[in-house]
Amino acid sequence: MADVIGTLLLPSVFLCVLLMHLQDTAKKPNFIIILADDIGWGDLDANLNPEVRKNNTPNLNWMAQQGLRFTDFHSPASTCSPSRAALLTGRYGLRNGVTHNFAVNSVAGLPLSEVTFPQLLQAAGYHTAMIGKWHLGHNRPYSPTNRGFSYYLGVPYSNDMGCTDSPGYDLPHCPPCDTHRGQYRLSEGRGCFHKVGLPLIENSSIVQQPLDLWTLTQTYQSAALDNIHHARRSGQPFLLYMALAHMHVPLAPRHSRPLTPDRVYAAALQEMDGLVGALTSAAEGSDTLIWFTGDNGPWEQKCQFAGSVGPFKGTWQLTKGGGSAKRTTWEGGHRVPTVAYWPGKISPNTTSSALMSGMDIFSTVLALAGVTPPSDRRYDGTDATDVLLKGAETGREFLFHPNSGAAGQYGDLQTARSGKYKAFYMTGAAEACGGETGSAELHDPPLVFDLGADEEERSPLDPESAEYQDVVHRMSCGREQLLWDIATDTSVSTADYSTDPSAAPCWPQRGLSRASAGPQQGLCRASAGPQQGLCRASAGPPQGLNGASAGPQQGRSGASAGPQRGLSRLNITSE
Ligand SMILES: *[C@@H]1O[C@H](CO)[C@@H](O)[C@H](O)[C@H]1NC(C)=O
Ligand SMILES: *[C@@H]1O[C@H](CO)[C@@H](O)[C@H](O)[C@H]1NC(C)=O
Ligand SMILES: *[C@@H]1O[C@H](CO)[C@@H](O)[C@H](O)[C@H]1NC(C)=O
Ligand SMILES: [Ca+2]
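Above: the input record for the complex with calcium ion. Below: its predicted structure, written as tokens.
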């Protein structure tokens, strides 16, 4: 009987599967990668025990309930630029060259010899849009529209790297851009940028400077929805890389009443969650993988304006002084809230404890799109398709965390993960709330923690124990293998971190000659006018260029863009 049914059904089932397969290959899936800035593992309610949840992330909780929540997912670095570079290239900073942050006046960015996954998707026919924080070089040819995005809207770096007219919540509180009689204020609190208005860039044009922090979420949301709707109408597969300004200071949640400082972070988190919800709704029914993650842990020195590490306290470090989140390789710096949602493809209400990294997004997204990255280089990302779609628990055998400013050389892989174990060859702290900094320490033999039993990293294993010996042997072999692999990689890039005052994105104020404000200290902002400081690309060429500079220098394997001068690098008049 079964045989008869089998014989009758087989051809039609086969045809069905074949048709589905043909459809699949004809229409590639869409991707929305949402990268939150400085978010803490404990900021996502779904990561916490029900009794300590604060109900700030209902949309993300819902996505987790309808999708997959990762419990051992890590940012590739614990500061912005290296984390983002590794996510986009699938390579450690030791290979892609980006080991620390770029500045407002950085001449260059992610080496041009590097290949980003948006670039590869774009070549495969995707509409590729990016909204938000780039932080991988704002001057041509390093800007997003030259690195794989057909559309870009956002702040070219962090939202605290420029002044605004109505500052958000930050610590210290930064004053507004001061244009009083064309002068800018000389001394302001540490960490406040006052010379350059925070720019909003669309494609390659400054469209607002300084931008309005308080409407930025709405601006980002409208642009994101436009891109999603446009791509859906056109039938073109799309990638949206949404690099949120949230939860990085200054926080500027819109609220009907002024907020007391202790309520600001929660309000900003709710605002971010609302934006995620809007993206999810816009993509409903469009065969879209939505992958939410973070670029590094909370910026603890911002005190009440920083996120929560949840149970990942880094207690060993705390007892020695300093903070144990952003910039460090403690769990608080690297373990980030991560949710993948793809109705019909990812099983609902599942969690995965697979050890994974943001670099794996590179390999997984490309595999799902059927795109093979160039074979002339080595990658550190692994294809996690089976973890997403088949519930496989096999994550990475090893994951290494680079130093991101808390200890040793930038980019050095001094912390290793394998299974439930973590080995520190070097430890270091970031600045804590209150200013304490701690100090770096070399560990030979390494410090080893069993995260399965000790998630707060309190008590290292006894170096005499057999367990320790076994772990250290395995970790050290894995690490040496990787370092050898990098040393023999013929396509390693070096980033140019040189700076030049004229490299800052700057819409010079009309009527204010550079000379009157000091040679390199004019306040960069859009001219006031009918549009209230909104300068469109059509407003004409920038004036008052000053300071010729050498053109961007490339990594040793990168092509040179040739000499360019000052502000014209942004090419405000075109695109
Ligand atoms: C999700 O899974 C958990 C644990 O397996 C279960 O207790 C809960 O009822 C599930 N929720 C839904 C909405 O299916
Ligand atoms: C700026 O754009 C114009 C018009 O497309 C082009 O002729 C010029 O070479 C560009 N300049 C730079 C510095 O890219
Ligand atoms: C940016 O590019 C998009 C798509 O090419 C275009 O529709 C839009 O007008 C551009 N915006 C600016 C300010 O150039
Ligand atoms: Ca960050």
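Notes for the reader.
Residues 37-38, 80, 248, 295-296 surround calcium ion (ligand 4) (CB under 6 Å).
The longest helix spans residues 2-26.
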